Amino acid sequence: MKKIWGILMTLALVLSLVGPAASAETQSKNKSKHVQIVLFDGFDLMDALAPYEVFAAAGMYSKGAVTVELVSAEGKRSVPSGLNGPALEAQAALDPNRPGIILVPGASGKPGGNSEDAIPNILRQAMKTGLPGMLEQAFNNKEVTVATVCGGTLLPAMQGLLKDRHAVTNHIGMDALGALGAIPVEARVVEDGPRFVSGGGVTSGLDVALYLVDRELGPQIANAVEKLFEYEKRGTVWKAEGIAPIDFNTSPKESEEKQPTANAVSTSDR
């Protein structure tokens, strides 16, 4: 009897040790950060795939602490990329209510003109889908970070979602970004509050994704991905924080009025 009782006590002890571990593992899975990369007709392949690989590698190194999938406003479908490039398969419909990160790439096509394959027209066609409304829902969801790459920054701007927000896009679209109400910032990556991050040119998608991996999972995972890709994140992430630099091209008074001072811009609740 004593032997049986001893076995039962040992089993109870083992279960008490395994139970919390299993529970912690379950909680870890439930708390994984999910990334949705949005595809639309004419999207830029590198804008989408470079961040996809960064997040996928981060998930590999972190035992699934981040997951990533390709989505579209219409749901599961084959989505053609720009410049007659290959199509990618959207795995599901974009869910603006799902906590995590939503990343919007830019378009690939002619930099200007009125042809169907011109970037302005590709973006205008994307604005005729359900994507703009979904992005608006995402911006209103405090559990979602919206990230944009290259011309993808113009899509929420065209929906009026970037009014008075700091942002960056490809250099050829900076004037348009300002005309749409945003505050253009000449930087590689710009963060306006914790829930909106934008990147400049095409390759900045790598930097946006690596910054978000560092922010969400920590520098060790980000460093492991950099070593795997043999690429180091470029540029300081610009934020409306700290001491603003003097603009020597204007008068001291104009510079003071133009530049945000330390803690003058509060974006923590955006």
Word description of this protein:
With 270 residues, this protein is α/β, with parallel strands linked by helices. It has helices at residues 2-30, 45-61, 119-127, 131-139, 154-158, 174-179, 204-217, 219-229, 252-258, and strands spanning 33-39, 66-72, 77-80, 87-90, 92-93, 100-104, 144-149, 166-167, 183-184, 189-191, 196-199, 237-238. The protein is built from nine helices and twelve strands. Helix 2 (45-61) runs parallel beside helix 7 (204-217). It is globular.
Fraction in beta strands: 15-25%
Largest sheet: 8 strands, mixed
Assembly state (oligomeric): single chain
Number of helices: 9
- Assign the structural class, choosing from mainly alpha, mainly beta, alpha/beta, alpha+beta, or little secondary structure: alpha/beta
* Intertermini distance: 65 Å
User: What's the CATH architecture of the largest domain?
Assistant: 3-Layer(aba) Sandwich
User: Under CATH, the topology of the largest domain is which?
Assistant: Rossmann fold
CATH class of the largest domain: Alpha Beta
Whole-angstrom Rg:
22 Å
If you average the pLDDT, what whole number results? Answer: 87
The H-level CATH homologous superfamily of the largest domain, spelled out, is Class I glutamine amidotransferase (GATase) domain
Strands in their spatial order, largest beta sheet: 5-2-1-6-7-11-10-12
Q: Give the uncertain stretches in residue-range form.
A: 1-29, 261-268
Topology pattern, helix = H, strand = E: HEHEEEEEHHEHEHEEEHHEH
Give the overall form: globular
Share of residues in helices: 25-40%
Number of strands: 12
Please tell me the total number of domains: 2
